[in-house]
Amino acid sequence: MTSNQTDYGKAGRNLPVATAVGLGLLATVIASLFIDVRFFAILVAFAAMLAVRELSKALAVGLSDRMSILLQILAPAIVVSAAVSGVEGLLAAFVASALLVLTVRLLDGQEAYVHHVTRSIFALVYAPLLAGFAVLLSTQEDGAWKVLAFILLTAATDLGGYAAGAIFGKHPMAPKISPKKSWEGFVGALVLQLIVGVVLWIYVFDQPWWEGAIVGFVMMLTATIGDLVESMIKRDLGIKDMGSLLPGHGGVMDRLDSLVINAFMAWLLFGFFL
């Protein structure tokens, strides 16, 4: 650890600042959902643009300004297409964006062509394509409550894992990927996630409790996987955070890692159970 870095212990971050920023973001999302879900789509589109900007800088070293700007235009376009035309719009916009990346990158010459196009398309998958499923969820009946439920289910994994890990954590779960994650934290995430899932299914969706338990269990696993995936990407790139825009959290993608994975899982699971 360099001299200009602060050791925040097991939290791994400035917890008061991270909490304040997290609550502010949650309040903004809730307001956008319950005032008008179109505001939520705009918010997700903006977040996807910022996330792709971070990803393209970290992943595709030497990417031209032309390509960087193109990706930042395509990202919100993919998300908005989901709001306007549903699943078909989301997939069509993504495929068209991938073809544009392949074509426009030709203008920058042969050097690192495969490196740039594959990583640029990966950035479009990781942020706007997956985030688009949250917008699809918001356009359904009771969409605002479904999106809020998926966010709470994802946050419960983080909160339960942090609390149990900070208090009881002794056995690292994946020391080479994310040293601060422990099996005790995994159990804490599971317990809180099951509670949140059951409560949501009984009191919000008026459905059998066991369905909420299944959804909570699955989304706890996928949230953990999403967190580990981004940790692996950052370790491979040799960076601590994807960016520095959000105090206490890092970059936008550092906050979206589990959410984008769970956006798809929520769309899939809620569609099956609800």
UniProtKB/TrEMBL annotation:
One term of GO molecular function: phosphatidate cytidylyltransferase activity
Subcellular location field: Cell membrane
Signal peptide, first to last residue: none
Membrane topology: Multi-pass membrane protein
GO cellular component, one term: plasma membrane
This protein's record includes keyword Cell membrane: yes
Pfam families according to UniProt: CTP_transf_1 (PF01148)
Keywords: Cell membrane, Lipid biosynthesis, Lipid metabolism, Membrane, Nucleotidyltransferase, Phospholipid biosynthesis, Phospholipid metabolism, Transferase, Transmembrane, Transmembrane helix
Coiled coil: none
Transmembrane segments: 20-46, 67-84, 120-138, 144-164, 185-203, 209-229, 256-273
Family label: Belongs to the CDS family.
Annotated PANTHER family: PHOSPHATIDATE CYTIDYLYLTRANSFERASE
Protein name: Unannotated protein
Annotated source species: freshwater metagenome
